[in-house]
Amino acid sequence: MSLGFVIGESKPTFVTAITSRALSVGEYIKISSDEGEILGLVERSAVSSAAFTDVKNFDEASESTEIAELNKRDKTFTAHIGILGFLENLRKGQSIIPAIPPIPGTEITLPSKQDLEEIFSPKKEGWVSIGNLLRNKSIDAKVNLDKIVSRHLGILAMTGMGKSNLVSLVTKQISKLKGTVIIFDYHNDYTSLNIPRINVIDAKINPRLLDSEQLSDVLEIRESATVQQRVLRMAFTENVKKSSEFWKRLENEVDSIINSDDNKLKEIRSSAYRVQDIVEDAQRRFEDILDPDMGDPISFIKEGCANVLNISELSEKQANVALAFYLQQLLKDRKDASIAQHGKTKRKRNFKFNSPVFVIIEEAHVFIPKDHDTSAKYWAAKIAREGRKFGLGLGIVSQRPRSVDLNVLSQMGSFAIMKIIQEDDQRQIASATESTSRELISQLTSLNVGDAVLVGQWSNLPSLVHVEEVKEKIMGADQSAINAWAKADKMKGIAIESTQGLVQKDLLLD
Ligand SMILES: Nc1ncnc2c1ncn2[C@@H]1O[C@H](COP(=O)(O)OP(=O)(O)OP(=O)(O)O)[C@@H](O)[C@H]1O
Ligand SMILES: [Mg+2]
């Protein structure tokens, strides 16, 4: 059935159409050109009414409603359509843009269910469903998991719009395929995710494996306290690292600086006292976090599982050190494993991971910030650049894309972008994604919870989808203050009643 016609000036990548009804942004249409059937995406949609043009006052507006109702030709529905390519090629995952623009007058129709299914829900290995097309609800929206592991994924949206839900869904799908996922969980969002093969680990740091700068960070020595940092550098010797009594040995080393007769060391004595306090204090304060006897933290991660590394107990600096450590070790392990696999040496070695790993970093604006360097950022950037070669995929999640390092962001081969209102955020996303998706990105303000724009290599085409809600865990639902207050008040009532009961009973007993 005819939906409309191409009008005005057409371009190979863009046409304007007049249609019989208002088209929705994100809707797919078919253009039947002489060269073959072309698929297009409605990027902007407008409705105008002749009767309401130049209306200047209330009475005119009121009369115009009647005229508009009577006149069938009153409404004009205009759609701006981005051309995605020939249908035939899109079915094979290739986008070939016509050389000749569709001639004005060319008919526009709706694609069939089969047309859309062949493109958006291919029945191929590695493609999994994450929801449905937003404007064509009966079509499954599938993504290619291979592409996110090899070319990385960015999940960006305002707070509460469904990022963690999508992370849970992707994790669930990868774990169904017995793949390895590691989530750095900064807000304790995933520890109760109820999916098979989940492995929750309370992230700890083994101080022996750090350098003195990292140890200084985890002990929370201030950045400006350069003398204290110097003391720690001197005290944190190789012998301390190897000692069976790590803390005691470290304290001894600091003591020997305090007690030294060397004039140079006397000058830094007061800072050494401070370090002594800090080291003593840290053993108590960070008892659950710093563990010199834990061995290699990587050994707790299980291959073929959804590993949730709970870093919620760590301060930002500690989390940064932990993240940098894990990322560095993971890259090293995957690098060694793939060199051994592809290299000529027949020597078998044991690697922690013998298959690709997908690592997800929540709060990426904290760990991979735009305006300063962190060690986690250094390793994340390295994985973004090199991970592809070694089967180490990176997923970065943020509600402040404008504050995430653009170098890392633009290495993400695929994106899921949900509602975003801030223009700075939209600009940053536009610079990190391909130009063809920018029109879609301008639609981000109008999305609802769970709606997402998918762009990049994990989908055959840029698309607007509604992500399925993961039932295994109701994620980060907004806390209802009203409910909590009512509950607290009720509890108070019960408490008063029971104490009154007690008092009365006591009185009776008296
Ligand atoms: N696809 C979806 N369909 C329906 N509801 C959803 C969907 N995704 C998320 N929600 C709901 O929205 C709420 C917030 O979701 P989620 O925790 O995933 O958001 P977020 O973007 O990770 O937020 P934050 O920035 O605070 O981490 C949850 O209550 C969840 O149930
Ligand atoms: Mg979240």
Topology:
Elements: E1 2-11, E2 14-19, E3 28-33, E4 36-49, H1 58-70, E5 75-86, H2 87-90, E6 107-109, H3 113-120, E7 127-133, E8 140-144, H4 145-151, E9 153-156, H5 163-176, E10 180-185, E11 198-202, H6 212-218, H7 226-235, H8 238-242, H9 246-258, H10 263-267, H11 269-285, E12 306-310, H12 316-342, E13 357-361, H13 364-367, H14 375-390, E14 392-398, H15 406-409, E15 414-417, H16 423-432, H17 438-441, E16 451-456, E17 463-467, H18 481-509
Parallel strand pairs: 9-14, 9-15, 10-12, 10-13, 11-12, 13-14
Antiparallel strand pairs: 1-2, 1-6, 2-5, 3-4, 3-6, 4-5, 7-8, 7-17, 15-16, 16-17
Provide an overview of this structure.
The chain is an alpha/beta fold. It folds into three domains: 2-111, no CATH class; 142-204 and 295-467, Rossmann fold (3-Layer(aba) Sandwich); 207-285, no CATH class. The chain has 18 helices and 17 strands. The chain has helices at 58-70, 87-90, 113-120, 145-151, 163-176, 212-218, 226-235, 238-242, 246-258, 263-267, 269-285, 316-342, 364-367, 375-390, 406-409, 423-432, 438-441, 481-509, and strands spanning 2-11, 14-19, 28-33, 36-49, 75-86, 107-109, 127-133, 140-144, 153-156, 180-185, 198-202, 306-310, 357-361, 392-398, 414-417, 451-456, 463-467. Strands 8-7-17-16-15-9-14-13-10-12-11 form an eleven-stranded mixed β-sheet. The chain has a six-stranded antiparallel β-barrel with strand order 1-2-5-4-3-6. A hairpin with a 6-residue loop joins strand 7 (127-133) and strand 8. Helix 7 (226-235) packs across helix 9 (246-258) and helix 7 crosses helix 11. The model is unreliable at 502-510 (pLDDT under 50). Adenosine-5'-triphosphate (ATP) is lined by residues 157, 159-165, 399, 449-450, 467, 469, 474-477.
